[in-house]
Amino acid sequence: MHSAIIDLPSATPGTRRTLTVQRFGTAGARPCAYIQASLHADEIPAMLVADKLRRILTALEAEGRIAGEVILVPVANPVGLGQSLMDHHLGRFDQDDGKNFNRDYPHLTEAVAERVADRLTDDGEANKAAIRAALAEALAERTPRTETEHMKHRLLELALQADWVLDLHCDLEAVMHLYTLTPSAEAFAPLQRLLGARAVFLAEESGGDPFDEAVSRPWNELAKRWPDRPIPFGCHSVTVELRGQADVEHAQGEADAQAIAGFLTHAGVLSGEPPALPEPLCAPTPLESSEPLTAPVGGVVVFHHKAGDRVEAGAVVADILDPLTGDVTPVRSESAGVLYAHSATRFTLAGKRIAKVAGTTLRRTGPLLSA
Ligand SMILES: [Zn+2]
Fold this sequence. Notes:
Layout: E1 2-7, E2 18-25, E3 32-37, H1 45-62, E4 69-73, H2 78-81, E5 84-85, E6 88-89, H3 109-116, H4 124-140, H5 147-159, E7 164-171, E8 173-174, E9 177-181, H6 189-195, E10 199-203, H7 211-225, E11 236-244, H8 250-266, E12 285-286, E13 290-294, E14 299-303, E15 310-311, E16 316-321, E17 328-332, E18 337-342, E19 347-348, E20 353-358
Parallel strand pairs: 3-4, 3-7, 7-11, 9-10, 10-12
Antiparallel strand pairs: 1-2, 2-4, 5-6, 8-18, 9-11, 13-20, 14-16, 14-19, 15-18, 16-17, 18-20
Helix pairs in contact: 1-8, 3-4, 3-7, 6-8
Bound molecules: zinc ion.
Zinc ion binds at residues 40, 43, 102, 169.
């Protein structure tokens, strides 16, 4: 393993944060997998899995089994990791401006299209190389200013050149689920099966410009723009939701890391016999069909189901109790599907999302991800 430190510019005199980048295999070798943990800094299962993965990769490297290259950033968000308020860790939003750390990544398709329009040929590999170079140039033209902008810029710079990007997150209370671009569903089927994902969500654009789509969307959109040119899909990316925030446990973390290593073997990043694939536990569904359940009133939340339960259309997923009047307001799922995540607290304000069901019938529009 080769470890390097990226210094982020100091935000205030006397402070300095860094990104640690751990590389396995030969620099520049392909296929290259980029894996980062806890971009939402309060999603701790990801850092545990990254630690387990580092141990696995270190052992495999000693056996000469890193065929390509793996780039691991075990702490992707040192800014968010240091944020707390009154004993509560706040890692999802930047305290400085309230922005979600996994939103507002640059959409580079247009800038890349301008650069490659005259350079695309009938040679797919040459086109891929030209697009990768253009992606790097387009990103380099952007000028980050704040510490967080620099951090996001440096993470994206690393991931943009990879063949595979795994962004490790978790939900509040949840079962294993994945988000990926629609054209990448097949590519991540081995990961889905090895991790035992209970839901896989597909979209060509989720809204909000999350990290994973910043690296993958340009390939999809450029291929559509030039259907007469061979443009291989240069970067498949996935957001892996490692269950809920409290699911931090050695055996489970080890199993998840082994599953990711198994996937990397299927992808040819690691050499050796790929593991057998268990039967899939779900079929991928459109993200637009995922149903957020919203509390119509504020009050005490009493769930009737736990994460992982399959609910029928019309099922009462939770009651909202008004402790002053005793009024009970049921919250029903319009969709049938797996209740793949719900809130971790048991009190809600009116209008807040308290649960999500992996349905198949809704066709939501607008931003499809949680705030
Ligand atoms: Zn997250």
